[in-house]
Amino acid sequence: MGLAYLPEDQVTTCLADGRLVRVLADWCAPFAGYHLYYPSRRQATPAFSLLVDALRYRG
């Protein structure tokens, strides 16, 4: 037994089949998505561009 603070998309199936139970639902703020701040005046590296694409098109 224990408590975990996890993103809902990681535990959706466990919640649906009853392996996990949501507690303190009134205290859970909705997650609007990821936010990424970066300087737009600098040339982005290929690795950074891949990260931005991965976060933008995440499931």
Features:
59 residues, mainly alpha, elongated
Structure description:
Helices cover 34% and strands 0% of the residues. The protein is mainly alpha-helical and 59 residues long. The chain has one domain. The longest helix is centred in the last third of the chain and has 11 residues. The chain contains 2 helices and no strands. The radius of gyration is 17 Å and the shape is elongated. This is LysR substrate binding domain-containing protein. It comes from Mesorhizobium qingshengii.
Strand tally: 0
Number of helices: 2
**Which structural class do the helices and strands define?**
mainly alpha
Major sheet description:
none
Provide the helix percentage.
25-40%
The H-and-E topology, N to C, reads as HH
Q: What would you report as the Rg, rounded to the nearest angstrom?
A: 17 Å
Shape: elongated
Mean pLDDT: 84
Strand percent estimate: under 5%
Q: Tally the structural domains.
A: 1
Unreliably modeled segments: none
Distance between termini? 30 Å
